[in-house]
Write a structure and sequence with these properties.
It is built from eleven helices and no strands. The protein is mainly alpha-helical and 289 residues long.
Length: 289
């Protein structure tokens, strides 16, 4: 464990040092303007660095400012408070999980159809790939507007945007996984007179399990991005996207960065949960490495 933790701690220390250095460099011009307007002269380097790291609205907040903001908006706020990052994270998480579930199911079904039908392989797969060339920031407002026009609002529109981003890696991963059995294994199933459905359940799906979990890790992170993006064009008042919007409106860069860090931690937690499920499932299937 210590052998693994050492390099990780070194990387974290380097990132923090670089973050502090960037904060000082980016905040220094504004701090000098503050000194000039206040008639302050002959400021020491130490004082300058200290002041640049303690600005109320810095260009780039320092790590300790973000940490304090996260602590104050999680541990010191009720989870039902509109200023609590736990509350906003739960709103974003609900649409993330719903969109991820729909995207995973859709991706698996598409992959099964593509593998078993040459027509779908030649006609559908190019459209699946082409769908990902459309920027999500362009399509998200259209989805929101169209669904609102037919009376659908709230969780579902954001979940559909998450679905749009998460189904693609699952589809591609499952297609690769369902085609992973060797020819000799497929011939053996034919020798046993196995039907296409029996081959699917007894050979293709078990062989595709490692590919499915790998693609789900990508999909759940993309689903979270989709949920946050889905909150932006709606002018949402709740969710991590809403926190980003509010921070940009009022120039609260510390609030923006705290929401970004919480989103990153949330994504890492979701990927880790899928990793745990993967190890458990593959162990039960006798495929654990």
């Amino acid at each position: 464990m210590s052998g693994t933790a050492g390099p990780v701690l070194v990387v974290v220390a380097v990132l923090l040092a670089g973050w502090y250095l960037a904060a000082v460099l980016l905040n220094t011009p504004f701090q000098r303007d503050i000194y000039k307007r206040g008639g302050v002269e002959d400021v020491s380097i130490v004082q300058l660095v200290t002041d640049t790291l303690a600005q109320d609205r810095p260009v780039l907040p320092s790590p300790h400012q973000v940490a304090v903001e996260i602590w104050e908006t999680t541990a010191e706020k009720s989870i039902t408070s509109k200023r609590s990052l736990v509350y906003h994270s739960s709103i974003t998480l609900s649409s993330t999980l719903l969109g991820f579930l729909m995207g995973t199911v859709l991706g698996i079904l598409l992959a099964i159809g593509i593998v078993h039908s040459r027509v779908l392989d030649k006609s559908l797969m190019p459209w699946v790939i082409a769908s990902q060339t459309i920027p999500i920031l362009a399509i998200a407002p259209m989805i929101i507007v169209v669904l609102n026009a037919i009376g659908i609002s709230g969780l579902l529109p954001k979940a559909l945007i998450s679905t749009y981003l998460s189904f693609f890696p699952v589809t591609v991963g499952m297609v690769k996984g369902l085609r992973s059995p060797e020819i000799i294994q497929l011939d053996l199933m034919k020798t046993y007179s196995a039907s296409a459905s029996q081959t699917l359940w007894k050979l293709r799906l078990p062989s595709a399990a490692p590919y499915l979990f790998a693609s789900m890790k990508v999909g759940v992170a993309a689903s979270l991005v989709g949920a946050i993006v889905g909150e932006l064009p709606t002018g949402a008042v709740a969710g991590l996207g809403a926190r980003l919007l509010a921070g940009s409106y009022y120039g609260q860069t510390v609030q923006i960065w705290s929401a970004l860090i919480v989103a990153a931690v949330l994504a890492a937690a979701l990927v880790s949960l899928i990793g745990l499920a993967e190890r458990s499932a593959l162990k039960r299937m006798g495929m654990a490495q």
